[in-house]
Write a structure and sequence with these properties.
- The strands form three sheets. This protein has a four-stranded antiparallel sheet with strand order 1-2-4-3, covered by helices on one side.
- The longest helix is centred in the middle third of the chain and has 18 residues, at 84-101.
- It contains seven helices and eight strands.
- Helix content is 34%, strand content 17%.
- It is an alpha+beta fold.
- It has helices spanning 23-36, 72-75, 84-101, 158-161, 170-186, 198-206, 213-222; strands at residues 2-4, 10-15, 46-54, 57-65, 106-107, 116-118, 125-127, 134-135.
Length: 223
């Protein structure tokens, strides 16, 4: 929610479902508290976490800074692409954010255009939504027997799609960032062949196949 703080200013308020807070929500809050100490321009500021009772139900809420520049997915609506210079700046911002969080042994695991927002200046990209964060210093919350691990399949790395938990590390985030930037540049997933459905693309990534020939040709020409 976009709310007005009693002491002035606008903040983003996240309200968790009433009742007991899930282990994953606790993991998210703990990660954000660590991230907030970094004071990196491409990471959100975590302001507070508290709880209140309403109609006999206990609610946990967390507050983060409000980012007024919109999100990346809005800029990619209807298949739009982004200028190369803007993609380079975007890559620098997000790679900087990952460079900052990975020494904390945090893996975001859900990098995608929906989770990239911009500050009010409209240019500084910020990586948001740590709801699926993996803290490599703590036991995994994902059941080993699950066929797939947490993440958004269309942007997920093979180790997520196959629930290869031992392989998940900083490279998992790099893969998702690369997919997101490729879509910014070309309007297509780098593993998408002509006529592919989204399911076919995900299956190709899970099978650890190579990117599509069209993307490879584009990348070589752009390089």
């Amino acid at each position: 929610y976009r709310v007005e703080h009693p002491k002035g200013g606008i903040v983003a308020l996240k309200v968790y479902l009433p009742g007991s807070v899930s282990d994953r929500a606790i993991r998210e809050i703990e990660a954000l508290q660590q991230v907030a100490k970094l004071t990196h321009p491409s990471l959100p500021s975590f302001l507070a976490v508290t709880s209140f009772v309403h109609n006999a139900a206990n609610y946990v809420v967390s507050a983060e800074e409000f980012l007024g520049g919109g999100c990346l997915s809005e800029r990619l609506a209807n298949g739009a692409v982004i200028d190369v210079a803007d993609i380079v700046a975007l890559a620098q911002h997000l790679a900087g954010a990952l460079h900052a969080i990975h020494p904390l042994r945090l893996v975001h695991r859900d990098i995608k255009p929906d989770n990239v927002m911009f500050r009010a200046d409209g240019t500084t990209a910020v990586l948001v939504d740590f709801g699926l964060v993996r803290d490599l210093s703590k036991p995994s919350l994902t059941k080993t027997w699950l066929a797939n691990g947490p993440g958004t399949p269309y942007f997920a790395a093979p180790e997520q799609l196959n629930n290869d938990k031992l392989l998940i590390d900083w490279r998992t985030d790099q893969f998702a960032l690369g997919v997101s930037l490729a879509i910014c540049a070309t309007g297509r997933h780098p593993y998408q062949h002509a006529g592919d459905t989204a399911d076919a693309v995900v299956a190709r990534v899970a099978a650890r196949e190579r990117p599509s020939p069209a993307f490879v040709t584009w990348a070589q020409a752009a390089g």
